[in-house]
Design a protein that fits this description.
With about 230 residues, the protein is of the alpha/beta class. It folds into two domains: about 1-85 and about 165-225, Rossmann fold; about 100-160, no CATH class. It is about 35% helix and about 25% strand. It is built from seven helices and nine strands. A five-stranded parallel sheet has the order 6-7-8-3-9. It has a four-stranded antiparallel sheet with strand order 2-1-4-5, with helices on one face. A hairpin with a 5-residue loop joins strand 1 (about 1-15) and strand 2. Helix 4 crosses helix 5 (about 150-160). The radius of gyration is 18 Å and the shape is globular. Bound molecules: adenosine-5'-triphosphate (ATP). It comes from Pseudooceanicola antarcticus. This is Phosphonate C-P lyase system protein PhnL. GO terms for molecular function: lyase activity. Belongs to the ABC transporter superfamily. Keywords: ATP-binding, Lyase, Nucleotide-binding.
């Protein structure tokens, strides 16, 4: 479902004389339907960079990144937006929302955007918010004023509202209490059981060991030091 083939990445530092920094070389990774693969490696090794390339936020310098039948490394922006709407979910570490949109609609939005009927979309959103212990009195308010932990749970509810065939998870259990952390691990297990292919970064080793089938150490994709 997700196939990264011989991908490299450089950053050009425009404010430092256009210095070109190679950060990744020969990155390869296969994730089948129903499988969860954890990206591991020391800080700065390139886990986030690889994840951002799969999501199409960073452009790969070479190689192929297949998500379903789309090569993210070569696709036009419009094609990437379609992929994100229909195929590839992303649970980032922080919630980014349009101000003044009520929490229930923030969570229902990924369903509404693909034409799910409003009542059904809100029912699914309500079920997820309940599961993640967001009190109903908050559902009509914008999450912008919520606590950090509440925002993270709204973000997770939104990320799991649709049953995407492929998902990227950036530290989905970080800074959650035990009850909510357990809910998130169950959501991941359910997504795998229905066939989602998942790539994740988990500093929470216990959660990683429980939900991930394999680890890929991105240190292996670090270019040899240039003198
Ligand atoms: N936008 C950018 N411009 C320049 N260099 C960048 C950029 N993003 C990442 N890098 C560099 O790429 C390398 C990999 O960074 P990345 O954030 O992917 O590491 P990571 O493994 O996710 O680290 P951490 O566990 O600390 O989040 C680092 O050397 C970093 O400085």
């Amino acid at each position: 479902m997700i196939s990264v083939q011989d991908v490299s990445k450089t950053f050009t530092l425009h404010n430092q004389g256009a210095a070109v920094i190679p950060v990744m070389e020969g990155a390869s990774l296969q994730v089948a339907a129903g499988e969860c693969v954890a990206l591991v490696g020391a800080s700065g090794a390139g886990k986030s960079t690889l994840m951002r390339m799969i999501y199409g936020n960073y452009l790969a310098a070479s190689g192929r990144i297949m998500v379903g039948d789309v090569d993210v490394a070569a696709a036009a922006p419009r094609e990437i937006l379609r992929l994100r709407r229909e195929v590839l979910g992303y649970v980032s570490q922080f919630l980014r929302v349009v101000p003044r949109v009520p929490t229930l609609d923030v969570v229902a939005e990924p369903l509404l955007s693909v034409g799910v009927e409003a009542g059904e979309a809100r029912a699914r959103a309500a079920a997820l918010l309940t599961r993640l212990n967001i009190p109903e009195r908050l559902w009509g308010l914008s999450p912008t004023t919520f606590s950090g932990g509440e925002q993270q749970r709204v973000n997770i509810a939104r990320g799991f509202a649709r049953q995407y065939p492929a998902m990227l998870l950036d530290e989905p259990t970080a800074s959650l209490d035990a009850t909510n952390r357990e809910q998130v691990m169950q959501l991941i297990e359910e997504a795998k059981a229905r066939g989602a292919a998942i790539v994740g970064i988990f500093h929470d080793v216990e959660a990683r060991d429980r939900v991930c089938d394999r680890e890929v150490d991105v240190t292996g994709f670090t270019p040899a030091k240039v003198a």
